[in-house]
Amino acid sequence: MRHRAALAAGSLALALLGQVPEAAGQVATSPEWRTFEGSWSVSGRRHTVPVESGAEAAVVEVSGAVVLTKAEGLSRGFRGEAIGFDDGQGVSLGRAVWTDEHGDRLFSRLKGEPLETGRRIAGTITGGTGRYAGLEGEYSLTWQYVFSAEDGAIQGRAVRLEGRVRREGTTP
């Protein structure tokens, strides 16, 4: 009797162990959001024209290092490039691309406030290439500082870069 009980317990344990890799595989392909956090340091140029309110509209082109301190499913570092338009009335729109060390890219649309210290920008991830193909998501950032020179040169650093990604067409 003891022998049968031990055999049954052993068979049950082997059956359960046989299911662990399958369950682990299901977790890896889960449609859940994967989060990321980091910062973005940029330099570039701002070109302006006056608008009727006395303000200035601007086209901004920047690039620099995107460093992720938390990166579920993403590389830890990217070269970030962005181009944007500030209408001079407090609305900014743009596009960005982050390229990792393998040349794989992550694309996004940008919307928010002008490129100034303390202002926020929101990004919508619209896809990618290579390992980022089929990704969608969102992120936001706050400009910790932005320095502008009279010749149009700018430098800045965005902090509280926080977001999430998942494969297109999946539901959480």
Question: What is the element layout, followed by pairings?
Answer:
Layout: H1 2-28, E1 34-50, E2 56-71, E3 77-86, E4 92-99, E5 105-112, E6 120-128, E7 135-148, E8 153-167
Antiparallel strand pairs: 1-2, 1-8, 2-3, 3-4, 4-5, 5-6, 6-7, 7-8
Explain the overall architecture.
The structure is a single chain. The chain is an alpha+beta fold and 172 residues long. The protein folds into two domains: 1-30; 34-167, AOC barrel-like, CATH 2.40.350. Helices cover 16% and strands 56% of the residues. The chain is built from one helix and eight strands. It has one helix at residues 2-28, and strands spanning 34-50, 56-71, 77-86, 92-99, 105-112, 120-128, 135-148, 153-167. The chain has an eight-stranded antiparallel β-barrel. A hairpin with a 5-residue loop joins strand 4 and strand 5. The termini are far apart.
